[in-house]
Amino acid sequence: MTTLELAEFVQATDYEDLSPDVRDALKRRVLDSVGIAVAAEVADPTQVVFETVRDLETDGACTLWGRDGDGASPVQAAMHNTALTRYLDYMDSFLAPNETPHPSDNVGAVVAAGEYADRSGEDLLAGLAVAYEIQGELAWNAPVRDRGFDHVTHTVVSAAAGASKLLGLDLEETRNAIGIAGTAHNALRVTRTGGINEWKGIASANAARNAVYSAMLAKNGMEGPRDLFEGQKGWQDVISGAFDVDLTPGERVHDAMTKRYVAETYAQSAVEGVIELAEREDLDPDDIAGVKLETFAGAKLIIGGGEGNRYEIDNRAQADHSLPYMLAAALIDRDLSLEQYEPDRIRREDVQELLRIVDVSEDSELTERFENGEMPAVIDVTTDDGTTYRIEKEAFHGHPLDPIGWEGLEAKFDAIAGEHLEDDRRDELVETIRTLEDQDVADLTALLE
């Protein structure tokens, strides 16, 4: 894998190279991201990002989504808008055996670069295809989690590539942008271990900002390491190890899943399963003696206790990375949406007591099944009278094995954005995104002010 190889892929990929299925899938990724962003505008951490952007800039060519006409540079817009698409932990995920990044983290950066450069919707789709493909290939072939790096280490590279496409950089400028981004901005895994805090939901926004800044530097003549990946003490030597990629015009977008529930990626099947079990057996939470989840290695590691205590839950950032909390809340409420992450709900006695009798264990067979493309979960709920109820899942609705189409995504969009946008604005956004190849990037961002 060489830095030139990535830059050549960016240069070679245009809208005409994308299959109709890839174009459609990318548009659905945009709709999902926009809906999540609208709902995240009122969150305290995203407000902190907005206030910081306002402290640094008072005007600019790019729209700050949801901020009533406020503008900023593409760099700061990428930070702000990515914070919105990412913070609620409701975004898409790419499922690789040893890494699970969120390729929608690229959307804010690529849109900002496209708005700044006055690009078309076709250009935007090409840039998103580039970013999704690179993010997926890095996750699959060069996982960094076990080496102590966060998955946004991939994002800064993929977003820099997508931004370079929209900014119209030539081959050497693109190579420089990727070199700067990947050399200077490698994030540590400590973001998601131990006592998790709100930076978890903002780290990818920081990566998106750094990606666009790297591309802007390259656009204006800054040279970067030409051998980011292959050079001595470069990315492969220090971070990932040697690897190769097989780049296609955006086909990796089909490996991105849509979250059905507001929960960490690896929890989706388990949450869906416990809700189905609670409804099927009409379980009374007061009668539960124990909950046992058998899951795969990654879920146990990240949200089941392998990277820190997942039973001491006091805030949103801890709750959406705790299988015990998510299963307890879903069993009690028979839902796991934004309401289950309100501070009062998190701290309520019923869920705090139930989460402590949730046992999470890894099953090697389930790990093998996950590595072969499923997201399996086996859940046993035992009641006070000794009866045990079981449900087994191989995937969830939204997984690539059971994808959510336009109808489901529009329903999700209406559910999370409904209280923030009038019906006609939602309808206009959906139609603009559905026909993105006939629009300009500015047509989309004008609806996000």
From TrEMBL:
Q: Which GO terms describe its molecular function?
A: 2-methylcitrate dehydratase activity
Give every MmgE/PrpD C-terminal domain span: 261-432
Which organism does this record belong to? Haloterrigena turkmenica (strain ATCC 51198 / DSM 5511 / JCM 9101 / NCIMB 13204 / VKM B-1734 / 4k)
MmgE/PrpD N-terminal domain boundaries = 5-246
The record's Pfam families line, in alphabetical order, gives: MmgE_PrpD_C (PF19305), MmgE_PrpD_N (PF03972)
Q: Does the keyword Transferase apply?
A: no
Q: What is this protein called?
A: 2-methylcitrate dehydratase
**EC numbers:** 4.2.1.79
Q: Which UniProt keywords apply?
A: Lyase
Coiled-coil ranges (or none): none
The record's listing under InterPro entries reads: MmgE/PrpD_sf (IPR036148), MmgE/PrpD_sf_1 (IPR042183), MmgE/PrpD_sf_2 (IPR042188), MmgE_PrpD (IPR005656), MmgE_PrpD_C (IPR045337), MmgE_PrpD_N (IPR045336)
Please report which protein family the annotation says this sequence is part of.
Answer: Belongs to the PrpD family.
